[in-house]
Queue: 2 jobs
Job 1
Amino acid sequence: MSPKRISPELVHARLVLLRELLADLETLGDVTAHDLENDRLRRHALERILTQLVEVAVSINSHLIGALSGSAPETYRQSFLAAAEAGVLDHQLATDLALAAGMRNLLVHEYGDIDLTIVASARSAAARDFAAFVRIVAQWMLDHG
């Protein structure tokens, strides 16, 4: 597969979607495992936002890596690591976001019981890490787009 052209419009649209998801995450406010256990709608909203943040970021990663290298990452986790290898993300952020991909897999595939304490704590990590992802990718696009 030969490298393809980066679409600034596609990346921009997905960055806008990530910003919207982050605003929704902020609207949920701080949550505890108790909150999630007793408010199913809040739990479902948080879980959906967490999974969508990963999905949209991975679509950006896949597009950029595909355009830069000609091949797409095989897993969600690998997409963040490949973005670091390509110089789009720093390695620490990529590692942190790879953990978010693992949380996404737990939520989507429901591998056993989900620890709501971990889900609740994922909210603040996601807010921090995906906001950094948006800033870094937007700057990368300005510098390389």
Note: DSSP finds six helices and no strands in the chain.
Job 2
Amino acid sequence: MKKFRGTFIALAIVLVLAAYIVLTEREKPATGIGESVIFGATPDTVEEISIIHGKSKVTVMKGDNGTWVITAPRTYETSQDAVKSLIHAIAEAEFDKEIESDPSALEVFGLDAPDTCVEVKVKRGNKKTLLIGSATPVGSGYYARLTDDSKVCVIGMTLADALSKTADDLRERKIIKASNESVSGIRIVRRTEDDLTDVICEKQGDAWYLVRPIVDKADKERLDELLRDITGLTVDAFVDDEGSDLSRWGFDQPRMRIDLTITGKSAPIKVFIGDPDPSEEGFYVKTEDSAAVYLVKPWTFLPLELTPPDLVDSQLAGWDHDEVITATWTLDGKTFSLLKDGNGWKSIPVTDINLSEIQAAFEAPVSDKPVVTKEEDGCRVAGASKSLTSLELDNLVTRLQDIRIIGVGETLGSDIDLAAYGLDNPSIWVQLNVGDGSIFGVKVGKEIEGGFYAIATDRAFVYLVEKEGIEALNKVLLELSP
């Protein structure tokens, strides 16, 4: 009987303890935060972050407008994306595991004088401070503890790296705050040992034009690539915040200055390119509105490589296929013409066209062309002969547009000697009439080792063009000629 009485007493004690645990657990407020969560903060509640890493300290604070600002060790332009990544790491930070609940010797874990301290302040002034000590023996993480808790735990290496930020890690690294689309003008002044090159390009509508030192169409794709290189410059290292000795970095006589005209802004953004760094893997950069000097390391930087001719539109000629109603060409001294009618194209006798009225620069309309009457289904022409399909004109125009410039020569002017380039009596002369009296043309002159000389309507120079493009054009013209 005594044996059973002891059993009942033990059972009663167990039940009492169980009831106590249940009751006390019910009385605890539901925080929704697990014991492994470190800071207990959400991204929208974080107000201030301070990180001591070694001998450096950085503090970032949220402004009234929600923008984050580095306030220590001094005020810097702040990368909002970098700070948001830090806050994301803080909000999701958790301990991997607990090592010891009440250690007697913190120096064993490197926590008596920790190298990194992360302090997070949230709304209503609550604060949590995490101390990060030595790496674990197997190198999988770091020992860490909160200042208001005696437990020593382990955090992962990824989390430790995400929290151990310096001021440079949180600074804005994009040097130019402008998009390619907002740039309406660019000027590049480049200094070499023997010369100073000053190049200006302006955007007109969707097209780019060179206005100095030559006036010509600019290559839009090349300009877009150039702007991507310039606006894409990012800081590899912050080398000098004061900029007190500019000659040290090559800014007493910079080798290049780049001015970007931004739509809606009165003054251009000016960027200076200094000396290459000692490793010659990058170069020093500064802007006019900041004393800071940066090191950048782009793979390539087109402004340092391009010359004005490199920026010229490499497409010699371009027209709207659908607008062309007349195509006339001279090939090996013989002239042919096509005019559009409702069914396609017809070849027209050369006697119907007075070519003597067309000037060498293609500025005058044809004065005695065949009569063309527009109808709903196209155009009709009196007289005529061999009929062709529209695809054959499309092929001709395509071949014209495929001619590529590989060199820029002499400026067209009244004193130019066209005979020197074989353009006084061109081997190929193609003209297109777009129906409003405008005549667009291409003349092909002498062949040299690198290609052919050529000129075109609305282009200001004699150009050297690729041989392959002229050979393809010649082949099409032979096929079209009766």
Note: The helical segments are 2-27, 80-92, 157-163, 167-170, 220-231, 308-311, 390-401, 467-480.
